[in-house]
C-alpha cells in the first residue's frame, strides 16, 4: 500500500477479532492529516480533530458509541473573514451484516422507516471502516453558511432595500419617467 492509498483516518475494526467486551478506538490527527481533512471537507483549515469510540459486538455486527471533537476554520459568507467553529458531536451507530434471508425479490414491496433513528448500516465482510462515519459526522456538523457574530449584509452598508443603485439606476429612472410622459 503506497502513501497515497493510505486511509486518512485509521479507524478500521475487524469484527472477527473484536473481544466480547469491545475495544476503544481513538483517532487523533497530525498536521498533515488535518490538512487532508480540510481539503476533503472543503474548509480553510481543520485545527483539531479527535474521536474516541467504544466499539462492541452486537448481533453479528458492531455498535460504535463515542464522541467527536473538532475545530474548523471557514471563510464567512458575508465578509470572507475567518470563522472558527468548535464541533462536539456524540456518535452512536450500529453496523449489521445484511440479512440474506430478508433480501427483497424483484417486484416485491419493501418497507423502510426513515424516521427510525436506529436504522443500522449494512456491512459485508469482516471489517468496518469507521473513518466514513467520522467524516460524515463532522461533515453534517459544519455550518454551511458561516458568519461572524453580529455579521449580516446590512452591517456591510450595502443597499438591500430592493432599489437599484449605481450608474444604471439613474438611466432606469429616466426611462420610467419618459414612459409615463408618452
Give structural attributes.
182 residues, alpha+beta, DUF177 domain-containing protein, single chain
Low-pLDDT segments, ≥5 res: none
Whole-number count of domains:
1
Strand content: 25-35%
The total strand number stands at: 7
Largest sheet: 5 strands, mixed
Number of alpha- plus pi-helical segments? 3
How are helices and strands ordered from N to C?
EEHEEEEEHH
Share in helix: 10-25%
Radius of gyration: 25 Å
| Anisotropy-based shape | elongated
- Structural class designation: alpha+beta
Give the spatial strand order of the biggest sheet.
2-3-4-5-6
Mean pLDDT: 81
Give the termini separation: 79 Å
Organism: Devosia litorisediminis
InterPro entries: YceD (IPR003772)
Protein name: DUF177 domain-containing protein
Pfam families: YceD (PF02620)
